[in-house]
Amino acid sequence: MRCYSNWAVKFVGWLDERGGGWCGLDAGMVGSYVGEVTTSAGSVETSKAMVTALRSLLRFALQAGWVVQDLTGAVLPVASWRLASTPSPLPDGVVGRLLASCDVSTLAGRRDRAVLELLAGLGLRRGEVASLDVGDLDWHAGLITVTGKASRIDKLPLPGRAGEAVAAYVMGGRTVLPGALFLTVRRPWRRLDPAGVSGIVRQACRRSGLEPVGPHRLRHTLASELLRAGAGLPEIGQVLRHASLHSTAGYAKIDWERLRLIARPWPMLVAGHLS
Q1: Rounded CA gap, 206 and 213, in Å?
Q2: Is the pLDDT score of 48 beyond 80?
Q3: Is the sign of the CA dihedral 67, 72, 78, 82 positive or negative?
Q4: What sign has the CA pseudo-torsion 167, 97, 237, 191?
Q5: Which positions are annotated as active-site residues?
Q6: b/e string for 164-176 if b means 16 or more Cβ within 10 A?
Q7: How far is residue 134's CA from residue 106's CA, in Å, rounded to a whole number?
Q8: Quick one: which of 9, 73, 177, 217 could link to 213 by a disulfide (CB 3.0–4.6 Å)?
């Protein structure tokens, strides 16, 4: 709902800038807006979110009587193809710099280090980190319970470094508040949300003198490291908890050494003929 409302606010602001309001809205204007946004969106996912939200807003506008005709047909779908994108792991050494940038002498630094260790060591998604509760940690068994997409629940082994970082945060001054594991460090204390997890990664990039990246880049990096260590795609899919091997298949594009083994030689032009 927040995503829908954000895009609705942007569209209404765009409409106000052009004058006329809803009464003057037509299919041409809607198409123009879609073209402007998709050109500058930066990703297929962002463009898809925009068109979905805009169609919903236009249906509501029709029911509310703000427009007199259904304009959803002017919101064309965004073209995309499975496995069209290429995973983008971080360069060697960057993850270490991000981790080292955390000042673990402070509560915020210990929290940030624990968050980064879970992102980098387990490949968790930002929402999965934000949704962790204190009770999801089984210290005796060395396991962590993760609630992922479609409410899928997995028990995962907690890597040593990640476990030590989380323990240092929990035992090192974290506010005693039941439920959420990761909290804001300023009052009023509340659960760290996914945007907060992204903010931790961006701040670590800034401290390290790097261009900001999103938490998902750490997930890509873990998969890349597993590939280089000799893991197959099924094993990587298990670590990343993909529901289908199709989701893991994209990582085959960055396994250059294995791709060279199956690559066919490019036809060479010899004496005016293809050989």
Answers
A1: 10
A2: yes
A3: positive
A4: positive
A5: 125, 149, 216, 219, 242, 251
A6: ebbebbbeeebee
A7: 20
A8: 217
3-state helix, strand, coil in the chain (%, to 5): 55, 5, 35
Q: Pairing between strand 143-147 and 137-138?
A: antiparallel
Stretch among 11-20, 151-160, 179-188, 229-238 having the lowest mean pLDDT? 229-238
Higher pLDDT, 256 or 149: 149
Question: Please, which residues bridge with residue 209 across strands?
Answer: none
Q: Which domains does the chain have, with CATH numbers?
A: 2-74 (1.10.150), 94-254 (1.10.443.10)
Contact 70, 62 (CB under 8 A): yes
Count other Cβ atoms within 10 Å, centred on residue 144. Answer: 23
Residue 253, amino acid: K
SS3 230: coil
Task: Spell out the residues 6+ positions from residue 92 whose beta carbon is closer than 8 angstroms to its own.
Answer: none
Using DSSP bridges, classify how beta strands 153-157 and 143-147 pair: parallel, antiparallel or unpaired: antiparallel
Residue type for position 246: H
The amino acid occupying position 239 is V
From the CA atom positions of the chain, what is the Rg in Å? 23
The residue whose two tokens read 């659960």 is: 191
As a whole number of angstroms, the distance between CA 42 and CA 148 comes to 26
Please give the structure tokens belonging to residue 134.
């204190």
Given a contact cutoff of 8 angstroms between Cβ atoms, the answer to whether 162 and 182 are in contact is: no
